[in-house]
Design a protein that fits this description.
about 90 residues; about 25% helix; Alpha-Beta Plaits; alpha+beta; globular
């Protein structure tokens, strides 16, 4: 399994719509809105490097409102914690 992290800059007024459209793409497992110089981070999990090579330029970059992307391929995972739990702020247990 190949994991890639994609930093996405988007038109500010379209961030929610852009995030929804990217999240719906096959191979995209999560999309987060973030603070800082980028607007969204997408996590991609696919079987082959060629899948990343087609998903980012052919699908993500063509979503209306996306202005640029920067892709990082993960080499190794050092943590297996539950991402859902890590990002659930204020949830009651």
């Amino acid at each position: 399994m190949i994991t890639a992290i994609v930093f996405i800059k988007a038109e500010v007024a379209q961030i929610p719509e852009v995030a929804d459209q990217i999240a719906a793409l096959e191979g995209v497992s999560e999309v987060y809105s973030v603070t800082g110089e980028i607007d969204l981070i997408a996590l991609i999990r696919v079987r082959r490097h060629d899948d990343v090579a087609s998903l980012v330029p052919d699908r993500i970059n063509k979503v209306p409102g996306v202005t640029s992307t920067e892709t990082h391929i993960a080499f190794r995972a050092y943590s297996t914690h539950d991402l859902e739990a890590a990002f659930s702020l204020g949830a009651e247990e």
